[in-house]
């Protein structure tokens, strides 16, 4: 069983292409830190609650936090839309915000803004809970060639429209630990579900 995972993980990486080197990754995180430090350096800029969106943001969050030089409070939320798949589905909350967010400035950290469904949902939930301001900072924004339901306030780097792994991002649970970013070969992604030609009859009717 363990051999199966090792072989599968290695095969996925063998066909993948490195698109962002580890040093480019670090430079992008540094840029996000600079923008946040500038934003919160002024006296009276506030005491933000920084929320990392687990699990993908774990590496981005851990790399960024020590580069922030202003007083902050940290916690995490856990939301998933992809699970172990390479396509998004419903947004599933695993850990909701535990700190009181009412009246606070919240900085949300996530690894990637892809179709934007996850962060649009997160932002709306925080605003519904009374957050005064929600600043969205993402390590990467994917260029998907169409409008998204949310725009990030701070972006480390922009990625081409490919399924990427590394720096916290996984493919089928593998390779969150890579220090650079790799584009998975389309041949290794699951084929799309075929469109149904006929509607499935409702089992409860009849
Ligand atoms: O913009 P979207 O299309 O909504 O996708 C972006 C989300 O997808 C990833 O999470 P995922 O659901 O894969 O969970 P994970 O963080 O545990 O990997 C990533 O961490 C973002 O939160
Ligand atoms: N690993 C990974 N997770 C994602 N979630 C949304 N887009 C992506 C992606 O390109 N890679």
From TrEMBL:
<dbReference type="GO" id="GO:0032264">
    <property type="term" value="P:IMP salvage"/>
</dbReference>
<keyword id="KW-0328">Glycosyltransferase</keyword>
<dbReference type="GO" id="GO:0006178">
    <property type="term" value="P:guanine salvage"/>
</dbReference>
<dbReference type="GO" id="GO:0005829">
    <property type="term" value="C:cytosol"/>
</dbReference>
<dbReference type="InterPro" id="IPR029057">
    <property type="entry name" value="PRTase-like"/>
</dbReference>
<dbReference type="GO" id="GO:0000287">
    <property type="term" value="F:magnesium ion binding"/>
</dbReference>
<feature type="domain" description="Phosphoribosyltransferase">
    <location>
        <begin position="29"/>
        <end position="170"/>
    </location>
</feature>
<dbReference type="GO" id="GO:0032263">
    <property type="term" value="P:GMP salvage"/>
</dbReference>
<keyword id="KW-0808">Transferase</keyword>
<dbReference type="GO" id="GO:0046100">
    <property type="term" value="P:hypoxanthine metabolic process"/>
</dbReference>
<dbReference type="InterPro" id="IPR050408">
    <property type="entry name" value="HGPRT"/>
</dbReference>
<protein>
    <submittedName>
        <fullName>Hypoxanthine-guanine phosphoribosyltransferase</fullName>
        <ecNumber>2.4.2.8</ecNumber>
    </submittedName>
</protein>
<dbReference type="InterPro" id="IPR000836">
    <property type="entry name" value="PRTase_dom"/>
</dbReference>
<dbReference type="GO" id="GO:0004422">
    <property type="term" value="F:hypoxanthine phosphoribosyltransferase activity"/>
</dbReference>
<dbReference type="Pfam" id="PF00156">
    <property type="entry name" value="Pribosyltran"/>
</dbReference>
């Amino acid at each position: 069983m363990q051999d199966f995972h090792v072989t599968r993980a290695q095969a996925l990486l063998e066909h993948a292409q490195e698109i962002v080197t580890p040093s480019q990754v670090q430079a992008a995180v540094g840029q996000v830190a600079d923008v946040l430090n500038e934003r919160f350096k002024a006296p009276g800029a506030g005491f933000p609650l920084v929320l990392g969106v687990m699990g993908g943001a774990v590496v981005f969050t851990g790399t960024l936090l020590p580069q922030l030089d202003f007083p902050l409070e940290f916690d995490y939320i856990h939301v998933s839309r992809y699970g172990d798949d390479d396509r998004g589905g419903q947004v599933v909350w695993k850990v909701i915000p535990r700190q009181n967010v009412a009246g606070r400035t919240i900085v949300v950290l996530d690894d990637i803004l892809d179709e934007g469904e996850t962060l649009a949902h997160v932002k709306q939930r925080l605003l519904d809970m009374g957050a005064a301001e929600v600043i969205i900072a993402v390590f990467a924004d994917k260029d998907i060639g169409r409008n998204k339901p949310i725009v990030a306030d701070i972006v480390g780097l922009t990625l081409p429209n490919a399924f990427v792994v590394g720096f916290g991002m996984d493919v089928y649970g593998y390779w969150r630990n890579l220090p650079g970013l790799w584009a998975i070969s389309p041949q290794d992604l699951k084929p799309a579900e075929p469109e149904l030609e006929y509607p499935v009859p409702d089992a409860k009717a009849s």
